[in-house]
Amino acid sequence: MRYDTVIVGNGPAGLSAAIYAQRAGLSSLVIAESPVDGGQIATTYEVDNYPGLKGISGMELGMKFREHANQLDTEFLEARLLEIEDHGDYKSLILDQGEAVETKTVILALGADHRKLGVPGEKELIGSGVSYCATCDGAFYRKKEAAVVGGGDVALEDALFLARFASKVYLIHRRDTFRGAKVLVDQVLATENIEVIYDTVVEKVSGNIKVESLELLNKKTGEKSSLPVQGVFMAVGTEPNVDVKGLPQQDEKGYIIAGEDCKTAIEGIYAAGDLRTKQLRQVITAAADGANAVTSVQRYLNHM
Ligand SMILES: Cc1cc2nc3c(=O)[nH]c(=O)nc-3n(C[C@H](O)[C@H](O)[C@H](O)COP(=O)(O)OP(=O)(O)OC[C@H]3O[C@@H](n4cnc5c(N)ncnc54)[C@H](O)[C@@H]3O)c2cc1C
């Protein structure tokens, strides 16, 4: 069997692509390594910015996407993609189970992961006070105290965004100067409810069910302290899920180079969602990519 398209990833981009592919009458398959649908969004407690579904949990949103794809008889396979072999008018996908799947086109919707700090307590409290997305979760800290970890543009922007809601924002930076844009630095320094803690690293995120405090180490003085906060936003960069051989051209950060039509440097291979080069990585833009990628697939198949 050679599919019209194989979609890899079961986050918003992959599941949206699945829905559009089925409705377009394409023979399609969704390959995903995780049995939990929704990708990254399944890890967040509440989604407040997806139109029409305010306050839905990330897990429930993922399940709704999957239900919709199921209603259209989408075929799913639980496996990890290891390698893509390009044979021109068809591609072979090598999976971890040792089998190969043949398809005329591939929609890569592998997503991205926020870079982790890698400290104790961080992984355990994701979605319970540890967040990687201030745009998504910032509003939950209205009149609360929260911290941002990082020193680049994203960390500075996150601190400014959070300061609109939170009573106090601590910006924890491991150096004594910021590498972010000066205009942002100036704004941060001029914002009354932001306190910058320089030369300091987070050694541990503490809390039983939710974040209660951060254990800090001042790298210059060696002094240790505990900072009580209800939330912490890690803004130390993101990294795309690109541990696959044979991927199309990537930018310097590893994101697959593709525009709104999701076309990559390899004909017949499309990149949708957080995996591709883009301005805003959110559910709504990932779902939009899924739809656009299928439109590009249809045009490609029509010209084949
Ligand atoms: C904590 C948190 C809160 C967030 N809150 C919001 C919010 O409130 N609103 C909002 O709009 N956005 C939010 N986001 C961002 C949003 O989740 C992402 O933008 C969106 O999920 C991207 O969708 P995607 O389909 O591109 O990728 P992902 O959601 O990352 O899904 C990719 C899928 O591909 C699978 N995969 C990866 N590699 C392979 C492989 N080699 N083989 C097989 N499968 C593979 C992964 O397991 C994953 O299931 C949040 C993100 C996080 C982490």
Describe the structure.
The longest helix has 21 residues, at 283-303. The model has no long low-confidence stretch (mean pLDDT 95). This protein folds into two domains: 2-114 and 238-302, 3-Layer(bba) Sandwich (FAD/NAD(P)-binding domain); 130-234, FAD/NAD(P)-binding domain (3-Layer(bba) Sandwich). The protein has helices spanning 12-23, 58-71, 134-137, 153-163, 182-190, 283-303; strands at 2-8, 28-32, 75-78, 81-86, 91-95, 100-108, 112-114, 130-131, 145-149, 168-172, 194-197, 200-206, 213-218, 224-228, 231-234, 238-240, 269-271. The protein is 23% helix and 27% strand. It has six helices and 17 strands. The chain is an alpha/beta fold and 304 residues long. The structure holds flavin-adenine dinucleotide. Flavin-adenine dinucleotide is lined by residues 8-14, 31-34, 39-41, 43-44, 47, 49-50, 80-81, 109-112, 114, 127, 131-133, 136-137, 241, 244, 273-275, 281-284, 286.
In short:
The protein is of the alpha/beta class and 304 residues long. The chain has helices spanning 12-23, 58-71, 134-137, 153-163, 182-190, 283-303, and strands spanning 2-8, 28-32, 75-78, 81-86, 91-95, 100-108, 112-114, 130-131, 145-149, 168-172, 194-197, 200-206, 213-218, 224-228, 231-234, 238-240, 269-271.
Main features:
304 residues, alpha/beta, FAD/NAD(P)-binding domain, seven-stranded mixed beta sheet, five-stranded parallel beta sheet, 6 helices, 17 strands, 23% helix, 27% strand, elongated, binds flavin-adenine dinucleotide
- Number of extended strands: 17
Task: Note the main sheet.
Answer: 7 strands, mixed
Q: Which outline best applies? A: elongated
Question: Helicity range of the residues?
Answer: 10-25%
* CATH fold description of the largest domain: FAD/NAD(P)-binding domain
User: Strand share of the residues?
Assistant: 25-35%
The H-level CATH homologous superfamily of the largest domain, spelled out, is FAD/NAD(P)-binding domain
**Average predicted confidence as pLDDT:** 95
CATH hierarchy, class of the largest domain? Alpha Beta
Tell me what the CATH architecture of the largest domain is: 3-Layer(bba) Sandwich
Q: Could you state the order of secondary-structure elements as H and E?
A: EHEHEEEEEEHEHEHEEEEEEEH
Hetero compounds: flavin-adenine dinucleotide
